[in-house]
User: Fold this.
Amino acid sequence: MGILPNIKSNDRPKVLVTPAQENIKKLKLKVKEMTRRKWFQDSPMLKISALNAVLRGWISYYRHTNAKKIAKDLDFWVNERLFLWLSKRHKASKRKVLDRFKLRENGKRGNFGVVNGDNYPFLYRMSDLPLKKYRSGSPDNPYLEGDWKTSAAQPEKPLSQRIWMGNAENVIWRELKEKIKAERGAQCEQCGSLGKLDLHHLVSRKNKGKDTEDNLQLLCRTCHAQTPSFGRR
Assistant:
């Protein structure tokens, strides 16, 4: 993180914590890599899903900083990158790309998205995440209460070392999963959980079960691990 001092009109200095320029640069490099010409074989739906994973992770890391202005600027920049990638991928005019992929999100604003059944996966906007000031709890006085240890969490990294690029590796399986999530609702079919969803084979591959919608169930990791055929392929 970078620290930027800002002087207000009353001449009282105020320290603003903002994302470091180095990490902003790393995010842009990652998005550029994901939207290069060599990934034209990737489907727009998977590309948007992959970008969303990166963008959500990055801004979540900075959710307690003064990053709203930076998030808006980056949203605009990512929008432009995706627009150029779509235009070159489809070899279409800008107007045709906008007509096909610029959709109404929640009936309000225009945003890049893909029609997927009754669902419309849209490009995530980092400026949508409510940012909150970090307020640490009042620690005990170390001089009165003995040794004091910081309660601050260990530093994380805004970008993971391994990031799915939205490429065509296992593309059919990924598209099938996204399609099922869109049609059935992105939640566990057993407990309703929204996080860490897997596809479970009702008849395992080992028993000649097929990768078809009627043989697949959307489950969270916990429910998936409790199925009799879990891990048997």
About this structure: Confidence is low (pLDDT under 50) at residues 148-155. The chain has seven helices and six strands. The first helix runs from residue 21 to 34.
